[in-house]
Amino acid sequence: MSYLVHHLLENTAQQYPDNEAVVYKDNSVTYQELDAVSNQLAWILKNNGIEKGDRVGICLNKSIEEIVAIYGILKASAVYVPIDPTSPVQRLAFFIENCSIKALITTRKIITKLYQDYRDTVDKYLQFVIIQDEDERQEEFLPKIITWQQLLKSSSEPLPASSLIDCDLAHIMYTSGSTGTPKGVMLDHRSIINFASCFYKCLEVQPGERISHQLPIYFAASVVDVFTSIQAGATIVIVPSELAVFPIELAKFIESQQINIWFSVPSLLTQLILRGNLEQYQFQNLRKILFAGEVFPIEYLRQLIEMIPHVEYCNIYGSAETGARTYYQFKTISADLDSIPIGRACANTELFVV
What we know:
five-stranded parallel beta sheet, 11 helices, globular
C-alpha cells in the first residue's frame, strides 16, 4: 500500500522493472533505472545536508532529469519546489528566499545569472546546486556545484526507511502571481496520492500505456501525467516544448509516439484543430484526450469530436490553490450545451457551492 508519493515509483519498479518509465526524444529509462537514479539523487541530497522537510528547487526544462529530480527529492524526505526555468531571475530569487530553498537542481546558465544579480539574497539560503550540464567548472562566486555525472557515481541502493508520514509536505506549487505576489501552495503526500489514485481509476490507465507529458511540472494538473502514469506502470512521453508552436509536427508526434492518453491545455488543442491537419491521421492508439487550465470554446471542441470521434474526452478542473478537484468525462456533447461542465468531485473531495 502506497502512503508516500515515492512509494508509487518503488512499487511499480518491482512490478514492471523493464517497462519504459520516461521517454524524451531518443532517450528513455525503464522503471528499474528511474528508481535507481532517483536513489542516487536522494543520497547526494542526504550526504550534502538535506533533511526531512527541507525545500529543494527544480528549475529545469522538460527532461528525464526533471522526473528523476521529483522522485529523488521525495526519497530524501525533502519537499520539491517546481520553478519555471523561463522565469526572470528576480522571481527565482524570490522563490528561494520565500520558502528557504536549500538546494537547487538547474543549469549552469541559470545559476550563474542568478548569482550575478542576486548573490546576497541567494547566499543566505542555497547550500549547494546540482546542475544538469556536463561542465564541471567551479567558479569562486558560485555555491558548491555537483554535476549530474557526479551524481551518477553515487550509490543506487534504497535509502533507509524515513520517519515521513502521509501528512508531511511533498511539494510547494507557486501560483502565477497574476493578481500580485506568487503564493506557495503546500501539498502533502496524502493529497497527491489521492489525486493520482483518483485519475488512475477514472481514466483506467493500464501498464505500458503511453501518456503525454506536455504540461510543465509547475502546473497544478501535471499530477496526472507525473504521478498517475507512474502508479499505473505507464510510460511518460515528454512532449518537446518547441512542438507547441508547430501544430503539424505536434499531430505527427501524437501519431508516431503512439500516445494513448493526451493531456494539454485547450488552446493547444485548438491550434491542432485549426492547423494540425488532423484529418490525415487516424490516431488508432489514442483513447482519451484530457484538457485543463482554460475554458475550451465549445465550437472548437465540437470540431475536435468530429475529427477524432472514437476517443473519450475529459475536462479536468482545479487551480494551483486546490489542485485538480473535479473531472467530467464524455464522448459526445448535446447540441444545446453552450459550455462544458466541470463534472464530479475527485475521490475524497467535498464541493461547496457558494
